[in-house]
Design a protein that fits this description.
single chain, alpha+beta, 4-stranded antiparallel sheet, 17 helices, elongated
Length: about 375
């Protein structure tokens, strides 16, 4: 009997302990739930409801209040994977702010980049939202980056995303995002003194410009070049002859008037669109500089042989010339290939352009354009 009585007491004690432990666990659980159900009162009721939905009360209560986060929560655009980013993105007084940053985040822009965009390029937000991610913070590292052209860079990149951003910047600076002759730099007479001057569909010479130091070429006295270019051309042809490469000058300096007559003739014959692919409009021709000369192979009426072209590509720079419109570069030069058209730049500059493997349009923008 005494043993049974002892067992009953032990059983009662175990039951009491079990109940006590259960009650303790329940109380702790309820206390935890109570804490979870008490979000930071800094946030609106609507935001708090979303916080509770994601069971983030404790996490968010341990952080400082963020107006950016609240805006995202209230717009019902919250994504847990971007929680840290919301705290790092500076709030903006913009009704589209939560939608904009949400879209930028999904395009893989980080918080630093988003703040940079708002601080520097908020006027281009719509363009950025309509295109794939680009490393926009690297733009300022490009030597030829022009902040005033950012919108043009982005618009061009939307339809030419096969190019990296550095190439996009160069092409837009050249003007390739615009129709030729629609927007151009007009040079003064003083500008024309430099052998480095760039002339293309986006850089125009004065109508009355004529070099003061034109001299005839020995091959044909009716063909003129500026004196230093003429001397260099004679050295070029002599060097070619020693290598058994033969060509002769076909066209050199042309005045504005002469170019006008030629272009008009071509336009009447082929139409303006086609004429613009092979002939410069008056004022936009390198020939007016007196620094360009077209050459021909003796056995060809209007071209040079492949062998002569290769020789010019690999040797003309030694005498200060470059092939101005090389093969395969029409999309940059905006003219059909002209393997026969060479341009004098001086030995130093021509050597650098040759080594760069760039067209002169690209080289000029990257290394010579003053900003």
């Amino acid at each position: 009997m005494e043993n049974n009585k002892g067992l009953k007491i032990i059983l009662i004690i175990l039951i009491i302990l079990t109940i006590t432990v259960f009650v303790a666990i329940t109380i702790l659980y309820l206390m935890d739930k109570k804490e979870e159900a008490a979000p930071n009162t800094s946030y609106s009721a609507k935001a708090s409801a979303v916080i509770q939905k994601y069971n983030l009360t404790n996490t968010i209560n341990n952080k400082e209040y963020s107006q950016t986060l609240e805006t995202i929560l209230e717009a019902n655009l919250f994504d847990p994977q971007y929680l840290d980013a919301y705290y790092e993105i500076n709030y903006q007084e913009d009704q589209n702010f939560p939608y904009t940053i949400s879209k930028l985040l999904t395009k893989n822009y980080n918080s630093t980049e988003i703040n940079y965009i708002y601080d520097n390029y908020s006027n281009c937000l719509n363009i950025l939202l309509d295109m794939n991610y680009i490393n926009i913070t690297n733009l300022n590292k490009l030597s030829n980056f022009d902040p005033s052209k950012l919108e043009r860079y982005l618009q061009y990149h939307k339809t030419n995303n096969q190019y990296d951003i550095a190439t996009i910047v160069t092409y837009v600076n050249i003007g390739l995002d615009l129709e030729g002759y629609s927007n151009y730099v007009s040079y003064t007479t003083e500008d024309t003194s430099s052998y480095k001057i760039l002339v293309n569909k986006y850089h125009k010479l004065p109508n009355d410009y004529e070099p003061s130091d034109l001299v005839p070429l020995s091959y044909n006295s009716n063909l003129l070049l500026r004196e230093v270019a003429a001397e260099a051309f004679e050295q070029l042809t002599s060097a070619a002859t020693l290598d058994q490469v033969y060509f002769y000058p076909f066209s050199a300096y042309r005045s504005y008037t002469t170019q006008s007559v030629l272009y008009t003739r071509y336009k009447e014959r082929d139409g303006e669109t086609k004429a613009d692919t092979y002939s410069a409009r008056p004022g936009f021709s390198e020939h007016q500089l007196g620094l360009a000369v077209d050459v021909r192979s003796p056995n060809l009426a209007d071209n040079i042989t492949p062998e002569t072209y290769e020789w010019l590509l690999n040797n003309s720079y030694k005498y200060g010339f470059i092939v101005r419109y090389p093969k395969g570069k029409q999309y940059i030069t905006q003219y059909m290939e002209e393997p026969w058209h060479i341009r004098y730049l001086g030995i130093d500059l021509a050597t650098k352009v040759h080594a760069s493997n760039l067209t002169y349009d690209e080289y000029y923008d990257l290394y010579l354009e003053t900003r």
